[in-house]
User: What shape does this take?
Amino acid sequence: MICKKTYNSIDLFKFIAAFLVVGIHTEPFSQIKILDMAFGSITRIAVPFFFAASAFFFYLKPVDFKRMLLYTKHIFLLYVIWYLIYLLAAVPQFIKNGNFGNEVLSSLQGFLFGYKHLWFLQALIIAMPLCFGLIRIFKNDGIVFAIAVSLLVFGLINSTYGNLFINYNFFGNIRNSNIFKLIGTRNGLFYAPVYIMIGKFFARKQFKVNLICSLFGVLGSFTSLVIEGFICVFVIKTTQTILWISVVPLTFFVFQFLLHISLRDRNVFLSMRKTSVIIYTLHPLIISLFAFIDKPFLRFVIVLIITTFFAFLLYKISMIPKYKLMKKLY
Assistant: This one.
């Protein structure tokens, strides 16, 4: 098992990844095309890293059916709480639109298939038990990783690389089916499992790449991601930019590189791990309050500062015994 002192770098980068997610939804450099493309490439590591980090911390301890059940229950409750918060926040707009019933039904459908940015939590609810079950069946992480990669490739064929397979009736029929339109590829079936397995590999110390190789791996895979993004957007003309091949090795090498970085133990790192979840779940609500700001970078900075402030505030309040129920927010 990996020494606890190595967790701090993971906590820090998870906190940074939460900032990147805020950037995804505020597009701070949208007025400068080249910066927007560069920043967009960097942000693609954010959600995959969240998946890998979630699995990493989960698999550091022995896992059985009971622990998986408790973890899934925790994530499901977290999903429900934040879903209800956003549903209540949207009620005034539903009433204003004059179609309250249909709006609520649409939101309930969104809950089943991943409500707005909370799809990440719904994906965890699916992917973690899925990988756990496959591991119990095949008793071989390599086989399960291969299955996860196959699911990702299927998702890529039906999203990012879909235009290359547009003339193949098999894939066209899948993409045009009602069920596939509902579930999509940004979920716990096609997106998350490969990153869950990467996190598990490192938790169980199944891979070891030295620092120099890790650094070159990060640089190489990021370069590959930039090239892949350019080809997909400007050559293949994709309109779906969620799933990427190069993010898989990028996540692997970033994680391995971070495990080589030893940071002195401080309480702030654990706070960062916890508040990163709150930043992720809370920030769209803050964005909606500052939608009137027409300068993207200024809006990004303001949203980031305020979201981070309230995330730390909520975390600190939850540490007070009589307010411990607030821990359900993360």
Remarks:
- The two ends are 25 Å apart (CA to CA).
